[in-house]
Amino acid sequence: MAAPAGDSSGGDRYRSHLAGEGEKNTVWRHGAPPTYDAVNSLFESGRTQEWPKGSLEETVQNAIKTWEMELSHKARLADFKSVSPGKFTLSVNGGRALTGEETLAVGSYNALLASPILPATGAYDAAAETFESSHDLFRSAFPRGFAWEVVKVYSGPPVIAFKFRHWGHMEGPYKGHAPTGDKVEFYGVAVLKVDEQLRAEDVEVFYDPGELLAGLIKGAKNEDDGEAAALAGRLKEAATVSASTAADPPQQACPFLGSAKQE
Prior knowledge:
This protein is an alpha+beta fold. The protein is built from 8 helices and 6 strands; from the N terminus they run ααββααααββββαα. The longest helix has 20 residues, at 225-244.
């Protein structure tokens, strides 16, 4: 997760392992490294914190942005530099931990939104989405990108606990729901275990997916304005059920999210 000697950012201010000698054999999912100009602009204009260069907070923030970039754009786990080979796992809201290969196969959105509760709301069904379709959904809804920042770091390595914020502007459709132009954001906490080289071994994420999805289904859905309200109601009800069982995380399987123009 730490940047290597020399510049491996490819010109990106917040991500490493995009260019340079270490990436000459990398297989990129879309044929070439991504660019993040749009979402970097959104991040800089909307962030609540500007961490000092070299601070723990900046280091964690940039490390997670690098990890998300690799997960979304590198086709082989062997090309990842931000995770510890053979040890990486990701779990969300106390659900089953996914291996690195499993996470790479389904993609960040499906990994973070895999829940037995959400499909019934009509807001998201991870089992019905592929890596590509899930990224297309959020890329469409957030054409300027989906920005991400560290809000607070509670502990340093090797076990890093932190609070984060994720936000974007719904200026495109989502599953047939019309754009609202509203800012959609949510907060969460994560625990990141790293090795001596600051590469991720285990990531645990905790957040309320309803905070994200409720903002995406507010707009009218095609010709049925009333369906949007009904969906929002079902999602709120599901979130209430999820919250009522939060004291026992292992029983939950609810759902950092990203894509080419997104964080």
